[in-house]
């Protein structure tokens, strides 16, 4: 369920002499805001010095018009963050900036390393001190301490030492670099803009500034942007491609393109298959907004049952830093969703959502629908049961909190209070992506982690149960 899974981060970078790169970055981050609402940062370079502004909060809260006017240069990078490693405080906001022999090194990261502790301990043994608790600072410090003659050399030296999921934007006074890990777990793509170039976690970050989408950075590849243009270089040998399947199901915006497919179309297709697999007589198909919408449209079309929006999302809830009072907290899901009672009363509803994590939110929604007079509630989920936690940058839950890790579908149905419950099969999920299963990480469903997770990470942060891993994100 989209209210229970939090994306990790979004990155953006642009090299465009003569353009207002700070403002372009601001708008790109605005488009990528769904990937993280905890903090935002923009760094700009004019070739001689780098200026960085970052703070806690959403993009519209962090930057003012005047701030952007002061960020002058021809190259910029930006980041929106949801913390998955490291706590939620200012120092952990990104980009992370550290000084080096040859100037500044700035790093913005989407993903999670699984060997952070080993890398950090090595640096500590060399006398390095840390200001943050994030794995991004470890990467930045490794790059800054490299004896290579320039940042490209430093990247070639450092990146092969990283294990895990990383889509990175790196900037110095002179160059901007985009890098994707050898498995391509997190997305990163490149576009052209007014004689220059840009990179973004998702193509919607390019669209919003009018950049033309060129292609994805391939697993194990880096893209270097500087005065000579754009250059792609192999940085590490690519491994089995393992794009996170949840980018297709929910995380990324539906108007983004991944693996040459609009995610909207893939999600609609998931809904169509769901209608085949989980057919039921009903009066209306309604989504849990917003992420359930394309699959609900697909379900409605395939089943011939009218589509209706029975639940309206409060679009500006976002992340609030004001603690709710007890009375407000008791409103629970009402803070996020409000039912249109007239469209629900006496109706048999098919309710489409992207996933169920702990099950508590789904239970609350179904209770709300019944209180609004729904006659039947048939829950349809456009992904398979979510049984295993993520080690690669997504804040889901520890294993024992994942309701599908210990309960069968019928038990989950009873817990959430639905009349019927159906999850999309893995086969039909894969078919909706138009790519082979091998091209994805599906560890949430099958426990098959493409990048081996070190035992010490499982033991240190996980709570082992029945031999399976579990991890609590900070
Ligand atoms: Fe995505 Fe799950 Fe794999 Fe994490 S473990 S990358 S959330 S499929």
Automatic annotation (TrEMBL):
Give the binding site residues for [4Fe-4S] cluster: 244, 390, 441, 444
Q: Name one Pfam family in it.
A: Pribosyltran
Q: Where is the catalytic site?
A: 9
Q: Which GO terms describe its biological process?
A: 'de novo' IMP biosynthetic process; purine nucleobase biosynthetic process
Q: In which pathway does it act?
A: Purine metabolism; IMP biosynthesis via de novo pathway; N(1)-(5-phospho-D-ribosyl)glycinamide from 5-phospho-alpha-D-ribose 1-diphosphate: step 1/2
Supply the enzyme class, top level. transferase
Instruction: List the cofactors.
Output: Mg(2+); [4Fe-4S] cluster
**Residues that bind Mg(2+):** 291, 353-354
Molecular function GO terms recorded? 4 iron, 4 sulfur cluster binding; amidophosphoribosyltransferase activity; magnesium ion binding
Q: What is its EC number?
A: 2.4.2.14
Q: Does the keyword Transmembrane helix apply?
A: no
Domain Glutamine amidotransferase type-2, residue spans: 9-228
For this UniProt record, give its keywords in alphabetical order, as a comma-separated list. 4Fe-4S, Glutamine amidotransferase, Glycosyltransferase, Iron, Iron-sulfur, Magnesium, Metal-binding, Purine biosynthesis, Transferase
Catalysed reaction, written as an equation: 5-phospho-beta-D-ribosylamine + L-glutamate + diphosphate = 5-phospho-alpha-D-ribose 1-diphosphate + L-glutamine + H2O
| Family the UniProt entry places it in | In the C-terminal section; belongs to the purine/pyrimidine phosphoribosyltransferase family.
Q: What does this protein do?
A: Catalyzes the formation of phosphoribosylamine from phosphoribosylpyrophosphate (PRPP) and glutamine.
Cross-referenced NCBIfam families: purF
How is this protein named in the record?
Amidophosphoribosyltransferase
